[in-house]
Write a structure and sequence with these properties.
Elements lengths: L15 H28 L3 H28 L11 H6 L5 H26 L6 H13 L1 H16 L37 E2 L5 H4 L7 H14 L2 H14 L5 H27 L9 E2 L1 H6 L4 H29 L3 H28 L5 H18 L5 H4 L4 H8 L2
Parallel strand pairs: 1-2
Helix pairs in contact: 1-2, 1-4, 1-9, 2-5, 2-6, 2-9, 2-10, 4-5, 4-6, 8-10, 8-12, 9-10, 9-12, 10-13, 12-13, 12-14, 12-16
The structure holds fe (ii) ion (FE2) (2 copies).
The site of one fe (ii) ion (FE2) has 6 residues, from α10.
């Protein structure tokens, strides 16, 4: 009897030191890709691109987390290759949106994929099997992002813009990483061709498409609010960008899941609006929430969206799902059952991280800080007074800033 070999041997002359160096480079490249994708939703104006980036951030983060954990298993030390993408990242806020999109998909993601393939081709497949598994799964998880990015970048190239030349951030080209400070924008770029509104979040006062029938009005309003949760994609992205190096890897994984969920919520909201027969252009996009959260620190923005935003939206969505069932409206019931379930998960995981890790020391102190900062930003924007804002209840704050 000859049983099949349980493992395919691929002999390699790579040493343990080669593997440590190779894994350090992979973790650093993935770290750079996470930061670039995390701030990109603020930089690109197009709805489809924000949704795509929000979805793709999750597998990139998951890959980074696993590579970093593996790197630490191989050698518990600081990463010699840290910061190899920083010079490229530092340029991001100065780039046009087309160039930024080409940079993250055409350079950073592509470079990461090529480096993963190089590692796979070099390493001993039995001795370094734990790395092999991470890389094989990681490559498969990046396929959608790679395919979307290729098409998007070729569409951009058709525009014949002066797109930044392809650049690489490979460690092999530098003996010492150039460390430089990398900042993200404090505002969100939006598509000027889509109308938007700020200063209020009163959807019913903004458009005359409400009929007075409470069920259909509520359905339209919550579809619209979910479409506008494109600002939650921007928010979870900036939270990841700001907190990446300061919180446990497991928290970054949870934040990436939230970001990708919010991309699905925005996409679902848009589809529901189409299904209800409304034109997207007739429903302006609310920008007051991101106007405030983009100027906050990562911890403040996370506290704001979790303790004042997500907390406020779950009950209305569950109520709507129940009325949808009594109206035999399965599409609406399904959408809001799933979305409310996602929001409950976000509330549970984020509030637990805030309780355990927020530098203010407690959920109450974190909430007070977020409320104070949001109040002063709203006052500075001339929207309402800080003294008034800090007296508001959570429900009233949700009405103003949303999720
Ligand atoms: Fe959401
Ligand atoms: Fe959420």
């Amino acid at each position: 009897m000859k049983l099949p070999d349980p493992m395919a041997a691929r002999r390699s002359c790579w040493t343990f030191e080669d593997a440590v160096k190779g894994m350090s480079e992979l973790a650093a490249l993935a770290h750079g890709a996470v930061r670039a994708f995390a701030c990109a939703p603020l930089l690109v104006p197009w709805f489809e691109a924000k949704v795509a980036i929000g979805l793709h951030l999750e597998p990139i983060v998951n890959l980074y987390v696993q590579l970093e954990e593996r790197r630490l298993q191989l050698r518990k030390a600081a990463n010699d290759c840290a910061g190899i993408c920083d010079p490229l990242l530092a340029r991001m806020p100065t780039l046009g949106a087309e160039e930024a999109l080409a940079l993250i998909y055409g350079s950073l993601l592509d470079e990461l994929i090529r480096a993963l393939e190089r590692y796979l081709a070099s390493v001993d497949h039995v001795l370094d099997y734990p790395s092999l598994r991470i890389i094989q799964n990681g490559l498969a998880s990046l396929q959608d992002a790679e395919a979307w990015g290729k098409t998007a970048v070729s569409e951009i190239e058709k525009l014949d813009l002066a797109v930044a030349p392809r650049q690489t951030c490979s460690h092999s080209q530098r003996t010492k990483p150039e460390l430089c400070s990398v900042e993200r924008p404090k505002f969100a770029t939006r598509d000027a061709s889509s109308p938007s509104f700020g200063g209020t979040r009163n959807y019913r006062a903004i458009a005359n498409c409400f009929t007075g029938d409470e069920y259909s009005d509520r359905r339209l309003e919550l579809a619209w609010i979910n479409r506008d949760e494109i600002d939650a994609v921007e928010t979870f992205g900036l939270v990841i960008f700001d907190l990446l190096d300061y919180v446990p890897l497991a928290m970054i994984g949870d934040l990436a899941r939230s970001c990708s969920d919010e991309a699905r919520h925005a996409w679902t909201g848009r589809a529901l609006i189409d299904a209800l027969g409304h034109s997207q252009e007739d429903l302006p996009v609310s920008v007051i929430g991101i106007g405030v959260r983009a100027q906050m620190t990562g911890w403040q923005a996370l506290t704001q969206i979790t303790m004042f935003g997500e907390l406020g939206i779950i009950r209305p969505m569950l109520d709507l799902a129940n009325s949808a069932r009594s109206h035999a409206d399965t599409e609406t019931a399904n959408a809001f059952d799933f979305i409310a379930n996602d929001e409950l998960l976000h509330l549970r995981t984020s509030s637990s991280w805030i309780r355990r890790n927020h530098p203010a020391g407690s959920v109450k102190a974190a909430e007070e800080e977020a409320q104070r900062v949001a109040g002063s930003l709203l006052e500075r924007a001339g929207i309402l007074g800080e003294d008034y804002y800090i007296t508001l209840t959570k429900a009233e704050i949700f009405e103003i800033l949303g999720e």
